[in-house]
Amino acid sequence: MKYPQQKFGQPIALFTALVGIVLYAYLGTGDSHFFANLLGLGRLEGDLPAYIQRFGASFVFLGVLPLVGALGGGYTFKDLGFRWSFEFLRSPAYWLIFLVIVGTSAMSASTPEIQGFYPFSRTLAGYARNDSALWFLVHGLSYVFLYYVPWEICFRGVLTWGALGTPDEVRSLPNSFPWIVPLFAQVVGSVLLHLPHPFSETLGAIVFGVLAGWLTITYRSFVPALVLHLFAGLTLDFVLIFGPSF
After folding, report:
1. 246: which of 12, 50, 122, 221 is 20 to 30 A away, CA to CA?
2. What's the Rg (C-alpha) of the chain?
3. Total-model pTM
4. CA dist., res. 206 & res. 194, Å (int)
């Protein structure tokens, strides 16, 4: 059986991704407002400093650090799934998965445990609900570029292809290749970061992680998983902020 060739920087890529996950787990939440203070925003009202800390930590520890480690280890952007082919948009199966994932996310807004955890900033949600809906746009753009893109870079980019090989190598692998290890490498890391989240969401992260990993390997890109992830999260927050009171 043909196996992907190992890159010399594979241990570097995997190590920096794992370090980034640990740093985000400890510094992304809690009382530390390092990133907010660094930007001179530590005195903002309500939970905004904690909100900035979470997004700053995700951008640096889940995005920049793993990416720099992988690129420094000899990977290219293309090797890590930075491929902008939109072939998946022509797949009926993808849209079925999309409707199930996003629909489930929207319906979960009615559950007390989800309402108690999301949105990440009650202060910003109040601005969007009571002052201007443009605040939701601010939240959405921050969520996409500071949270979801770094998340997919780490899990469906560096961890997936760091454990498996490059997308071009994967294209020629036989169906009998043991996909289970590289597929679940990113699932385990993602689920561990969901442990402080509601129980139902953590269980759902297992299913989503498997689907996202399969889509990433199938299309040799993390874009399909990114689209699913960001629409599910933003739909949930939209319903929580602007929907009826449950």
Report:
1. 50
2. 18
3. 0.91
4. 10
